[in-house]
Amino acid sequence: MMVDVNISEEVLTRLRGRVAFLAQSGPSPRGSPERATGSVELSA
Q1: Where is this region: Disordered (predicted)?
Q2: d(Cα 31, Cα 16) in Å, to the nearest integer?
Q3: What is the pLDDT of residue 6?
Q4: Considering the entire predicted model, what is its pTM?
């Protein structure tokens, strides 16, 4: 159980790091539509 918990924590930290990196990079398919809608809402 302890080993599984440690692995899960490491995986979560890695996923969070990737999400933050993708959010900063921008060209990711998930981030681009969200920013596009956000820019449209701000402009409108």
Answers
A1: 23-44
A2: 14
A3: 75
A4: 0.38
